[in-house]
Amino acid sequence: MKAPCPEARKSLLLYPLSDGFERGMILCGKNGFFMDNLNSENIATSAEGAASAENVKVSVIIPVYNAHEFLPKALETICAQDFTDFEIILVDDGSTDRSLDIIKEFKERDQRIRIITENNAGPAAARNKGLSRARGKYVIFLDADDFYEPTLLSSLYNMSEQAELDVAVADFDIYSTKHARFEHNVESDHFELLTEGRVISKSTYPDHILQCATGYVWNKMFRRDFLTENELSFNTSLKIFEDVHFVMTALATAGAIAKKCEVLVHHRIYKEQSRPKMFKQHYINVFSVYSELKKFLMHKGIYAPISSSFINLSANRCYKIYNILWKDAKENFWNLIHDEYADALGWKSASPEEIENPAVRSFIAAASLYTHKQFVKKKKTATFVADEGVEQKFKRKKALVHFIAMLRFGRGN
Q1: pTM, whole model, 2 decimals?
Q2: What is the pLDDT of residue 53?
Q3: How many other CB atoms are found less than 10 A from the CB of residue 377?
Q4: Where are the beta strands (DSSP E) in 178-296?
Q5: How far apart are CA 155 and CA 77, in angstroms?
Q6: Which numeric CATH code is attached to 6-282?
């Protein structure tokens, strides 16, 4: 069963997963086969005909940390790819469960698997270690708890070769373990730029290049020489969203980007995931992600032509994050924008017309002018004071009135 392209999925009802799936079925395009059939003999056979290890076409890099519950399904769907010329680099990041044992068991079945161990250095360091050992012409960074269509690697590889891509993007959906069903994915702000057969770059869409795809790394294939030439790696100093930083640096520097408008990755969400916990602990570090991204763009000399895309990307994300924070965190987040980041990230100097989303435009205007306490007070009294020039004061006041109205009527979330 294949899910349709994003445009068609907008009107598609969520489709429940059959009981049989959780008992063992893996989605495989038009045909289904069962995990019971994926024994060691079948998986070993799938590796036959692969090129020598020194000349593989794709390196699949997977960081693993305490993923024993879902790791077997991830590895089974990767080993069962219809494309055989690849290696699987599994980086165990100090797992304390059965993950390493599972990895070793799979290695006995499939000689394409290589194992690297780390001492709980984090996903960024784990991916970097895998990248440093990769031998493929292309690399793809997958997650240990997701599962994949059997045409994932062949589709992205063939598209990359035909169009000489630096970055190939796959469509994906969300699988809710709790509800046992697939759900729509979260589209990027300008996903419409990446339609089937279109190749884009910052040269063709400078104002939107950073918003043409999501910041997820697990649905993208990268040409390895492109990463090396542009010195792209995962920033180990970031506490959160290190994948977003990596993907955005790649989109900003890529000469050719294209998308396969077909669901090839099933991203699993479940209660025990560590990312929500990390977010709650390190939400303030979101600003560091975009500060580091801006620093990278300026170092490469490409910030100016894509500054509008950067400003909208960073402002939109911070606005969305603000709206999901709890009360005390909202105040802290707001005040950091007011005191430092509205200026540092270029929002304050941007013209109101440059910010595409009216809600975000209003949010920036308010946070730039007032501390959180000042804003709350003015929201109640609906009075405004600003010591700016008349024209700029009028623009910011108008934006602030709009923002307050949205808050009062429950919109803008």
Answers
A1: 0.82
A2: 57
A3: 12
A4: 181-183, 220-223, 257-269
A5: 15
A6: 3.90.550.10
Say how far apart CA 154 and CA 91 lie, in whole Å: 23
Closest CA to 228 of 312, 166, 154: 166
> What dihedral angle (degrees, nearest 10) is formed by the CA atoms of 260, 132, 91, 70?
0
Residues β-bridged to residue 175: 182, 268
CA 19 to chain centre: 29
Strands 31-34 and 25-28: antiparallel
User: Using CA atoms, how far apart are residues 258 and 161, in angstroms rounded to an integer?
Assistant: 11
For residue 332, the one-letter residue type is N
SS (H, E, C) 124-163: HHHHHHHHHHCCCCEEEECCCCCEECCCHHHHHHHHHHHH
End-to-end alpha carbon distance in the chain: 34
Phi-psi region of 29 (alpha: psi -120 to 50; beta: other; left: phi over 0): left
Question: What are 78's two structure tokens?
Answer: 């990767």
pLDDT digits (tens, 9 = 90+) for 301-348: 999 999 999 999 999 999 999 998 999 999 999 999 999 999 999 999
All structural domains of the chain with their residue ranges = 6-282, 283-408
Q: What is the DSSP letter of 4?
A: -
| Amino acid letter for position 95 | S
- Say if CB 201 and CB 256 are below 8 A apart: yes
Cα-based torsion angle of the residue sequence 227, 232, 238, 240 in order, rounded to the nearest 10 degrees: -30
**How far apart are the C-alpha atoms of 1 and 84, rounded to whole Å?**
22
Nearest partner of 59 among 69, 48, 51, 67, judged by Cα = 51
Task: Write out the two tokens for 348.
Answer: 């304050």
| Structure confidence by residue, pLDDT tens digits, 367-390 | 999 999 999 988 877 544 444 443
Q: pLDDT over 70 for what percent of the chain?
A: 78
Lowest mean pLDDT among 13-27, 184-198, 214-228, 329-343: 13-27
Of 92, 96, 90, nearest to 122 (Cα)?
92
